[in-house]
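Researcher: Let's try something more involved. This one mixes different molecule types, so please make sure each is placed in the same coordinate frame as the others.
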Amino acid sequence: MAKLTVSGLTKTFGGFTAIKDVAFEVEEGEILGLIGPNGSGKSTTFNCIAGMLNPTAGTVVFEGRTIGGLPAHAVCRAGIGRTYQIPRPFHNLSLVENVALSSYFGQGKDVTRATAWEQAQEALSIVGLPTDPAARTDGLNASALKKLELARALATQPRLLLADESLNGLDHGEMDQAADMLDRVRRERGITIVWVEHIMGVLMRVVDRVVVLDHGEVIFDGAPEAAQADRKVVEVYLGTDADAEVA
Ligand code: ADP
Ligand code: MG
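Model: All components are placed in one shared frame. Result:
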């Protein structure tokens, strides 16, 4: 059985259909890249899975349990962690406190202070941020804020991680670092990952498979190498680059 099965997922806003009949599966232990140009429906798909949006139609099944339509906190407690594209940490709390909050509230069980702190420090060390209780959020750059965002998601002890990893604003070294980090989370923690991203290059190196969206519909599902050679994907997704190269 797949870890996550999305079928017939549709979301309309008024008369506008943002995603239509989106279907894909995520296998246990896999890193799936969900890619597509701006406005293709990635965030909408992501938010319908994570419970930020209520799907208009379709089902989302996680580990055999229907979660489509559950509110975000219930999805989180069911075992799906997520990162936000725009990090919004609590600036009046320390780094450890920020992450410990996720440990406290993100799991479907009571957590002691000691466990929350321990899980927070573990999550911080996975992403390479200081575990020192005195460390603050002030002065963290874009790259460090993304690490904090990932640490907060990891502290909820997810079995599936939805990473809205928008690499916008990171330099090449930082993008590579972000890719390596997700790869390590998968390898060392056995967490299944769906990585939503519109920059294709870096992602292709670590994902096992890609699902490509265009205008709210899945136009490709398969190996990264095959995606880069697929005519439809090249046209809609890489079209401008390919044209530029030809020109
Ligand atoms: P992506 O994340 O791939 O850039 P989105 O899922 O954010 O795309 O958006 C898909 C389409 O749905 C876009 O045309 C966007 O303008 C539209 N859309 C997204 N959210 C809303 C909303 N809350 N209300 C109306 N239209 C929306
Ligand atoms: Mg988006």
